[in-house]
Amino acid sequence: MAVRQTDAPHKLPDKETSVEVLERMLLIRRFEERAGEMYAKAKIGGFLHLCIGEEATIVGAVNAMRTTDYLMSTYREHGQALARGTPPEAVMAELFGRVDGVSKGHGGSMHLFDWERRFLGGYGIVGGNLPLATGVALACDYKGTDDAIVCMFGDGASNQGTFGESMNMAALWKLPVVFMVINNQFGMGTSLERHSAVTDLSKKAEGFGVPGSRCDGMDVLDVHDAVGEALRKAREERQPQLVEAVTYRFRGHSMADPEEYRTKDEVAEWRKRDPINVFKQRLIDEGVISDDDFEKLDERATGRIDEATEFADNSPFPDLDSLYDDIYVYGDQVKGWYAVDERAPEPHRGEDEREAGDLAHELAEAGAAYTHEEYEEDRWRHSGDDNAGGGEGEPAGGARDTTGGGD
Length: 407
Ligand SMILES: Cc1ncc(C[n+]2csc(CCOP(=O)(O)OP(=O)(O)O)c2C)c(N)n1
Prior knowledge:
By secondary structure, the protein is of the alpha/beta class. It has 2 domains: 15-314, Rossmann fold, CATH 3.40.50; 329-404, no CATH class. The protein is built from 14 helices and 7 strands. Helix 5 (129-142) runs parallel beside helix 6 (161-172). The chain starts with 14 loop residues before the first helix and ends with a helix. Thiamine diphosphate (TPP) binds at residues 74, 76, 124-126, 153-157, 184, 186-188, 253, 407.
């Protein structure tokens, strides 16, 4: 299948840029490997999705952006934060759930957020970031700026209803957004051929008025060209774009994945096109760096990750008092269970937490004493007496879905 922007190899950028690109990909690779190790040592809780194999899609795209542009990603987003310039210390500390993390330890692996660098997360709902990014693009336009947003998501997400809805609005309102589908061949354990009727994903938004292009996600320069051109069109011609980067996820979907849906040979075949090795080899072949230089770059990347890990380990956990900080609730308009510490016997609203005093803290900590049955009963008893679940009279039970989902 035709994937590349051009058959000929792309011209290398100047030496400084080439080395920076290689270093950034190496930093991400070494970070992800270490995160996997730290997960095995239980330093990291929850889910952990690594981007090993996809580094060129991230670095190529981010290097094509302006610092004033916005970036939005999925739960597989450590590399995006690092590429945008978030220090590895702040990313690792977030994975460890520590106070010096980029989301103050409240987000974890799937919810990195760095406003200063216009990296807007980190979303766990597959396809959920597309409408949000469309809204950001509307804001860029409404405010009269020439900022744009790149919204990254997976091949699986292209089957969500939000995909079509977002494409339609973006095209209709001529918004400065580049939708970038990182096609790593799988949505969890389901291969692209088994989940999408159209497998050339670059064509999937044409009917909504969003033209698409394809690039080789294992070639950082090809990605850079494709996203650069898409951003130019989105920004200057007010024509949203879809870019498909064809790549491969070398590791499992998340840390607990027996990978029964693919063969070791298939993985080995793709690994031959490892984006870091390919780019490194090109730099060596063209005399930009030597083998020794590469070793030094690699050692430096590993050293940065050593420092980041030590930093994260020494950072304290957030204070219990900060548990409800930064939770977005509309006072009396919305009474949601999400504003309630479910382990406590009485609902106490997030915004009242500071006044709740020691009792609430004690109750929260003692919450484990409550059996599941009592908890369920309590929840239903309370769900009847207020309009929990928010908006337009939706029954309280609806809010239960927000806590029930798994990954
Ligand atoms: C709305 C929704 N449905 C299901 C899930 C469970 N889930 C988590 S990741 C994932 C696969 C998504 O695959 P893809 O979009 O290709 O991204 P990738 O993980 O390959 O980067 C699924 C189904 C979810 N998080 N959100």
